[in-house]
């Protein structure tokens, strides 16, 4: 799920080797130093791809994958991709690819920071007549601060996309959010909470054209075992539920309440 989508960061891994014999008469434990550059990633499937509370896959399953290249300095680059649906995003095609790069650092006192730049790319976008690609892509800088105390992590952050970009038109966009996670001691279970506020070009999903913001929130839990993560999450928004031609407006824009599940494998 990107809602923690989004909120991107680098993963740090260490490599170790078992003891080996230096001489015939003795053996010594040895550990290789962590490599300067590591490559990590994951792939999986979710029952509904929700971006800031709104379905991008027409409330159906979506395949997703990510690859990160991380440097020991804290610098990182990566890409994240997901299938999407034309029914949810007319003219955007059937795929979303996010390219990103940034810097992350965790201090000894448990405080962490993450800053970077996202580029949303829709490589299969076409206009309604099947002609040239639509102007759908845009950049979005992001920044966040998090604090870890024991099994609990609290994170606050924001994403801002300036106006004048092809995918946004003459409006800018601001997304502010907070995430909380807590691992239950002596178990592989993690509890997750999220709340976010969209404003501007990506926040105009209400009947009132002057209302250009909405809230999204979620509560969930996940279990991680041997590289696999299995999760379930309740997702909702405050997009208006007023009925339009017999359907709730929130249903029409994919912002209705739902319970989704996901499974990923990290490498």
TrEMBL record:
Pfam families with a match to the protein in the record: Gcw_chp
Organism encoding this protein: Sphingomonas naasensis
Protein name from the UniProt record: Uncharacterized protein
Keywords for this protein: Signal
Residues annotated as signal peptide: 1-21
